[in-house]
C-alpha cells in the first residue's frame, strides 16, 4: 500500500515569506507527527495529532510555526515569516494507535526547505 | 526528560566485518527504544524496536539490538557488514506514558569499506 507522502519534496523560499508543507499519512493511521531534521539540531519533534484530541504542540520552536490536520487525515505545517534558521528537512510520520498499544511510526521522504 | 546518546558520529567498517553502533538512553523508567536507518535523500525506516518483550530484538537486514537495563544501553549490531548498509542510523526513545513522540540521538553515519 501507499506510504506516507509529503509535498513538495523541495522548497526554496525567500526570508520573510510564508510556506506550507503537506503530509498525507497512511490511510487509517490515527496519529500524525511532524519532525524537523537540521544540521545543527538533529531530529526534533515538532507536533503530534491523535484522532480528535487537541494536538501536542510542545515541540514547535516559535509561534511562527503552526499545523493543522483536516478530517483526521491530511496535515499542513505552516511556517510564517520564514527565517534562514528554518532551513531543514521536515519529516512527517504516521502510526496507528489502538488503546494502549504503541505502533510503529512510518516516515515520509521529507520536504527539504531552503530559506534564502 | 528523556535523552539518547549515540557514541561516534561516524563509524567505518570493512565489508564483512562486525557492525556495532552504540546507543545509551537516559530515562527514569524503561522506555520504548528504536533504531531507524536513513538512506540519502530518503525518510527514516524502522530497523527494530524494543517494547519490553524479549531483550534481544531482531530487525530487518540482519540487524539486532540488545536492551541492557543495567547499562542503559541499546546497541545495534550486525555480524557481517554489506556495502548496502552504508547509511545514517538513529537511535530513538519514547516514553511509554507520553504522546509517544520520539526523541532521537544525533545519528551515526556508517561507512562500509570494500
Key features?
heterodimer; A: 116 residues; mainly beta; 6-stranded mixed sheet; 4-stranded antiparallel sheet; 0% helix; B: 114 residues; 12 strands
Give a verbal description of the structure:
The complex is a heterodimer of chains A (116) and B (114). Chain A is mostly beta strands. Helices cover 0% and strands 47% of the residues of chain A. In chain A, strands 2, 4, 5, 8, 9 and 10 form a 6-stranded mixed β-sheet that branches. Chain A is globular, with a radius of gyration of 14 Å. Chain B has 114 residues and is mainly beta. In chain B, 0% of the residues lie in helices and 51% in strands. In chain B, strand 7 and strand 8 form a beta hairpin. At the A-B interface, strand 4, strand 5, strand 8 and strand 9 of A face strand 6, strand 10 and strand 11 of B.
SSE pattern of chain A = EEEEEEEEEE
Biggest protein-protein contact in the assembly? A-B, 24 and 23 residues
Mean pLDDT score of chain B: 90
User: Total number of helical segments of chain B?
Assistant: 0
Measured between the Cα atoms of the first and last residue of chain B, the distance is 41 Å
What is the overall silhouette of chain B? globular
Oligomer: heterodimer
Proportion of strand residues of chain A: over 45%
Approximate shape of chain A: globular
Amino acid at each position: 500500500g501507499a506510504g506516507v507522502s509529503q509535498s513538495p519534496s523541495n522548497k526554496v523560499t525567500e526570508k520573510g515569506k510564508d510556506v506550507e508543507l503537506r503530509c498525507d499519512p497512511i490511510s487509517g493511521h490515527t496519529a500524525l507527527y511532524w519532525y524537523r531534521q537540521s544540521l545543527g539540531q538533529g531530529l526534533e519533534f515538532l507536533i503530534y495529532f491523535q484522532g480528535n484530541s487537541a494536538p501536542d504542540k510542545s515541540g514547535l520552536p516559535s509561534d511562527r510555526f503552526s499545523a493543522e490536520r483536516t478530517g483526521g487525515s491530511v496535515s499542513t505545517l505552516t511556517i510564517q515569516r520564514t527565517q534562514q534558521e528554518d532551513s531543514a528537512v521536515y519529516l512527517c510520520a504516521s502510526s496507528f494507535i489502538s488503546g494502549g498499544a504503541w505502533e510503529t511510526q512510518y516516515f515520509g521522504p521529507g520536504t527539504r526547505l531552503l530559506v534564502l | 526528560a528523556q535523552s539518547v546518546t549515540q557514541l561516534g558520529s561516524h563509524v567505518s567498517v570493512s565489508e564483512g566485518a562486525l557492525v556495532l553502533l552504540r546507543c545509551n538512553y537516559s530515562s527514569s523508567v524503561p522506555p520504548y527504544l528504536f533504531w531507524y536507518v536513513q538512506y540519502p535523500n530518503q525518510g527514516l525506516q524502522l530497523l527494530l524496536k524494543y517494547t519490553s518483550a524479549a531483550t534481544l530484538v531482531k530487525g530487518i537486514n540482519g540487524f539486532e539490538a540488545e536492551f541492557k537495563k543495567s547499562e542503559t544501553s541499546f546497541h545495534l549490531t550486525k555480524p557481517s557488514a554489506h556495502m548496502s548498509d552504508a547509511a545514517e542510523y538513529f537511535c530513538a526513545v519514547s516514553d511509554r506514558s507520553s504522546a509517544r513522540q520520539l526523541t532521537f540521538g544525533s545519528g551515526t553515519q556508517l561507512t562500509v569499506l570494500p
